[in-house]
Amino acid sequence: MADLLQDAQYALAYAKRRAAEFQGEVAAFLNSNPYAKVIEQNADGTEDLYKIKLVKPMPIGLRGVAFDTVNSLRAALDQAGFAAARAAGNDGRNAHSPFRENISEMQGTIKQHARGEGRSKDIPAEVFAVIVAFQPYKGGNDLLWALNKLCNTQKHEIVVPMALRNTGGAVNRVIVEGGPADFGIPAQWDSAKQEILLVRVARGVPRSVDIQVDTFIAIGKVDGVEGQPAIGILNGLPGVVERIISAIETEATRIGLTA
Does a structural domain hold residue 214? Predict the structure, then answer.
């Protein structure tokens, strides 16, 4: 079985390398000071708007590295299922990993597999049960479910630059001296303008503003993980996939699928 799993292990190892590359390239980008503090007037000139803006474009290659990482991880799972199917004497054309939207859909897929139907029907029942036990659906293992969503998203949307106000749990991380300020505004990243409005301060009053922010590369428009730091997601996924592949190998050996 070890020989049959070599393609899955290769895809997993490749994904790990790409995830490490992603982390290094993100660090280099953030160290290049791509964000700047700016002060702009509001429309009627009565307030100063303190913002953080992205002033350097995110390297376009980051999206490709992230895309390679998640697709290699899903490929590793499909290749492991294929290997088990072939070892059981099936052709493996229907050995896809059973990602589903919710537990109800997964229960339907389990019944379908028991009838010898569906896109996972070539995977031996015991191995299929091992994969399902990892709960690859929303509300089960959400990180694993997100893997499939990431693979199905547009490459240009998979990761995006972002900045968030770092309040440390309180707004006193934004310090204004000498004048009134509005801290109640929603401090949300505007992806269209590539900026975040942090505080409004009345004009004509002496003041000193200290703005603390976190800057990072986030997951883009992907349900369940949108806006989360991409490094954390891409570093967490290989461990999940590795555990599934290891469990598949263990179960395949137990039921005698080894050569």
Answer: yes
Is 259 part of any domain?
Answer: no
H or E segment and range at residue 176: strand 175-177
Query: What b/e sequence results for 184-213 when a residue is b if at least 16 CB atoms lie within 10 Å of its CB, and e otherwise?
Result: eeebebeeeebbbbbbbbeeeeebebebeb
Q: Domain containing 247: what range? A: 6-254
What does each C-alpha distance from 113 to 83, 95, 117, 195 come to in angstroms? 17, 11, 5, 49
User: For residue 188, what pLDDT is reported?
Assistant: 83
* Full-model pTM: 0.88
Question: What is the end-to-end Cα distance of the chain in Å, rounded?
Answer: 6
Residues 6+ apart with CB under 8 A from 201: 47, 48, 50, 176, 179, 180, 181, 182, 207, 209
Q: What is the mean pLDDT of the chain?
A: 89
- Would you say residue 1 lies in a domain? no
List, for residues 203-236, the tens digit of each pLDDT value: 877 677 777 788 999 999 888 899 999 999 999 9
Q: How many domains does the chain have?
A: 1
